[in-house]
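Journal club prep — side note

Before the paper discussion, L.F. wants everyone to see what a predicted structure for a comparable chain looks like in token form. Sequence:
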Amino acid sequence: MNCKASWFDANEYPRLSIVLSVLVVTLILVPFVLVGLYYWVMSDIGANNPFLEPILALTVGLVAAFALSLPCACAAVLAYRFVMRYWKGKKRIPLNSAS
């Protein structure tokens, strides 16, 4: 069996790694944003059922949730990468060193 680097490996595939990481974080955030959108829509409506077609409403809600999650995921992945780059480059000082 050949041992190949994962597409998530930032050293081997830097661009693809960022794109896939953003996609995974977006897919993790979508259900939470969808629930938030549902509560936001339902909190201000006095009607029993504000949605005419449930499948259409779910589709529009999923697209909206994905569109709202994508910029948040981009920011989260880039912030994580910058923090990890900063911590990786920082030299560790032993606790018992005499200064």
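L.F.'s comment for the group: The CA atoms of residues 22 and 73 lie 5 Å apart. Keep this in mind when we get to the figures.
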